Amino acid sequence: MQQAWILRYGELGLKSRIVRRQFQRALSNNMENLAKKYQVSLIQDSIKSMEVVTSNSPPEDVENLLSHVLGVVAIDPAKLISDVIEPSKVAKAILENDNLRGQKRTFGVRTKRVGPKGSYSSQGYSGEIGRCMCEQDENLSVNLSNPDIWVRLVLEPEKVWQLGERIIAAGGLPPGVQGDVLCRVTDEESLLSTFLIMRRGSRIIPVEGSDEKLLQILRDWDPFLGRATAILDLHGKVKKRHPWGVVGISVEEGESMIQRPESDVKTVPLSTLEPLCGWTESEVEALSNHIRKPSKNLCMPNLDAWVS
């Protein structure tokens, strides 16, 4: 049974086509180099419009790797369960993989159709699958409000994928798309602050005095940590991009580390960044757990407190 993982983007999807392509290229490059670091085989592919990766490595290793890819908000494990779309055969395949088969339970079916419409709409196919499942297992009953099981399918013209339990990822933007930030990482607070800046797409440039063990935690998220990003000047020549912020050091110290050519007509003064301002102790603890084991710990477990 072929195993794949569908990558769900959040903020990336809101960008213009040109910017989105640039950000996705950065994300793909980061993911490819993280795979080398983790020694995980990874093949980037697509199911029509959906970004997909496949791998021969153990699923837990792949999911741990993908949970470290900034810019991905969720990961849907997917298995190819049928090379035909006939509802009765697909329903049989679904039930064969159901560990609760034979027990009383409720379910609902959601289908995402990709490619040409063909013989079924998404809603029509969900209905046919549900009917066939009820015929093949009398212990099933439909509940579309709050079922015990959601059966999530991706319908292609000639095959069907079933999605597993969704893994919530870190989200944010891929490092390197939003400039560089100078950071001195010496303790847990500066580590977490630096991670939040990295999560917003900035490339972290560690300065002298940083704790190497703490930096290694950040390298698990960004394989290019410490590499200054480059931009093109007005003449099309590549030049280094000046950092725009500091964490763990003063603005004055940060400015002493930057050489600004007199020819630069546009410069941005450094800003002091304190991204943990306003966080509670429990939220800080959750973030600390998340950056070390993201596949097991949510970045923001109490999201309602921030958006309500």
Describe the structure.
This protein is α/β, with parallel strands linked by helices and 308 residues long. The chain has 3 domains: 3-80, Alpha-Beta Plaits; 84-158, 2-Layer Sandwich (VC0802-like), CATH 3.30.2130.30; 180-277, no CATH class. 31% of the residues lie in helices and 23% in strands. The protein has helices spanning 17-38, 59-66, 87-96, 122-136, 188-199, 212-219, 251-256, 281-292, 304-307, and strands at residues 3-9, 43-47, 50-54, 72-82, 105-113, 140-142, 149-155, 160-163, 167-168, 180-183, 203-206, 230-232, 238-240, 245-247, 271-272. Strands 1, 2, 3, 4, 5, 6, 7, 8 and 9 form a 9-stranded mixed β-sheet that branches. A 4-stranded parallel β-sheet has the order 11-10-14-15, with helices on one face. The protein has a two-stranded antiparallel sheet with strand order 12-13. A hairpin with a 4-residue loop joins strand 7 and strand 8 (160-163). Helix 3 (87-96) crosses helix 4 (122-136). It is elongated and about 75 Å long. The relative contact order is 0.12.
